[in-house]
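Worked example 3. Consider a protein that binds HDE.
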Amino acid sequence: MPAEDNIKIPGAPSIEQPAVEEPTAAREPLPPKPDQQGPEAVSATGSPTGAPANSRAQSGQYLTTAQGLRLGDTDHSLKAGPRGPILLQDHHLREKITHFDHERIPERVVHARGAGAHGTFRSYGTASKITRAGFLAPDVETPVFVRFSTVLGSRGSADTVRDTRGFSTKFYTDEGTYDLVGNNIPVFFIQDGIKFPDLIHAGKPHPDREIPQAQSAHDTFWDFVSLHTEAQAHTMWNMSDRGIPRSYRTMEGFGVHTFRLVDAAGKTTLVKFHWKPKLGVHSLVWEEAQIINGMDPDFHRRDLADAIESGAYPEWELGIQTFPDTEDQMFEGIDLLDPTKFIPEELAPVQPIGLMTLNANPTNYFAETEQVAFHPGHLVPGIDVTNDPLLQVRLFSYLDTQISRLGGPNFAQIPINRPHAPVNDMLRDGMHQTAVHGGVAPYHPNSLDGGCPFMAGQDVGAFVDVPEEIAAGLKERRNPASFDDHFSQARLFFRSLTSVEQDHVIQAYTFELGKCYEAVIRERQLVALANIDAGLCAAVAKGLGMPAPTATVDTPDVEPSPAVSQIGGKWPVAGRVVGIIADSEGDMSLVAAARDAVDAAGMVPLVIAPSGGVLEPKHGPAVTVQRSYLTARSIEFDAIIAAGGGIPAADAIPGRDAKAGEPGATSDPRVVLMVSEAFRHGKAIGAWGPGAAVLDAAGVPHDAPGIISGEGPDTVIPVVRELLSAHRAWERFPAAGSVS
Ligand code: HDE
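Given these inputs, the predicted complex is written out as structure tokens:
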């Protein structure tokens, strides 16, 4: 290192600096013992995960204690005779039980429920004009770890609740770790971080009974957001389909706050970060989401892991909206420091700057997804923060929370948190210290360790805080006047949606408020809705059986932003799940052809039959069954093909005109339920042969939108694929007729 970059103490004699190796570099932990060397790690389904060989899979020849002592018995405690008491001297028993007793760590106070994946980020280089961040230079590839999450629920709660989703990305760059800790919604409930405990206490289960779990449909949440009206815009996004994503793979991500990019000359640009999923932005419908919570609470976690394992790697483009770093930090009348506001893409287009691909599942949930520690203050040269008062509080909170969650200040040494850039800090000791630091002078300035480590200049990659001029005023607890408008962005979002999406919003408010016991809370929230949109208010009030109030504030009119709508466009169908209902009566060569065609289109075919095993047909080849009528439910499938589903002829009473489920019915009631749910949820449904009768039994008109009844897979599968690229048959949903 150049000596001139070294310590400078005014008035002190300069210290001659010999070129020495840095003695304080942390020593790597000792390598695992030969017995602990695991084979290549494999996932639960048997495929390699790509985890390192020393991932400590259970592979050694003999079981040992934590001290490496080989064990002859781990099933019986050491007792005074076979019926006698257990002896305190049983070291193995004590070690085993003590370790077990301490297996749990505190879950995250928010975002406790999550799923993670490894991947890479490749920069297009388009941002390098405005930032000196090395990982944003052209064609640089950076390893990443991403954790998606819900906010309100406990670690074991269900995935498809109505909630905001976290979208956190750790970029392991050569210049230090950069964390982009965002959400799937571009605005936030509060403008100042000091309100965060209030917001979360209101959203979490009631403190007396600890219910409801992972829900906003309860009195305390609506009490808070109806009183604290700056929360209305974010609440509106949560009540839209954004609150119930189809998959983590089909979510947008947003940095929410305005950040600052800095180029090599120190010139700054304000930016907002966006993640755009290559598969498009798609959601569940509310009834579907509720059924999933019971049928498969791990729906999103499973979807992400299955897609990665099958090679359908999810991808997102990272993009930025850029704004001049002006003195007032306003853009088109919107305060860039107000995190309850977003900037419509029509006003500031999102410019792509790189592509992220998630291509490996974690090897161990606890070690990686649970122990990963994100922090908006993990910055790299070229990216800096702004004075957004929500971001400012986050800069304190994330480091602080890890100290209780991960048991001390050394969490950066946990493998998933270790930077890929060389670390040469002067942090020492503390709980869970695993580094063996050399040297005698972990302080600065020093002469004993040769003065090392030296201070870097910007030319060798030092982080330089932007020397921002602050227009100081009074020291006071007050917001700027530009934070006062609480309703215009909720109006902007609602009026930008299509009529079908608006109907979903109306249904969501009506459901959530319908779960509130206190009439005064429902009344107060209806006033907030009146301030947002009179038609929305009237429709929700009607559903609640309450009078619609009039507006209390004069909300400014806004230009809609069609970019926020999820409807329209065609998207890749990779990884979409197609259920094929079959039974031994049908022509199995058509079922096999359908399965192969779905597979060839990059989708996942699952054959559903009366029982598991292999379907031995009357016609055609035997086909392996993936789901039985007992284990299948419509929610698992993005589209359904009915190629069977009848009750075996022997069980039906010929000629009897019976309703589904009654003796003599010709379709299994579980299949009828599956098809009628898929119909209600706007899913593509194809049918041929005996499957056509299932449509009749489910009351599905053959000519309804999104229904294709044909001769076999050749005519049906291409149409189903085309329908799936639009996600749902939107024409089947009612539109919000009563909205202004
Ligand atoms: Fe967080 N948030 N947050 N948050 N947040 C945490 O940090 C907090 C906010 C977000 O996958 C905690 O490590 C405060 C906005 C995500 O591990 C905690 C405030 C946004 C995650 C915390 C906010 C987020 C967290 C809990 C108001 C979107 C999951 C565990 C000032 C831009 C990270 C942890 C993961 C997690 C505090 C507001 C996103 C307690 C005080 C705004 C995605 O530190």
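Take a moment to read the result before moving on. The chain has 16 helices and 22 strands. The domain at 116-437 is CATH 2.40.180.10 (Catalase HpII,  Chain A, domain 1).
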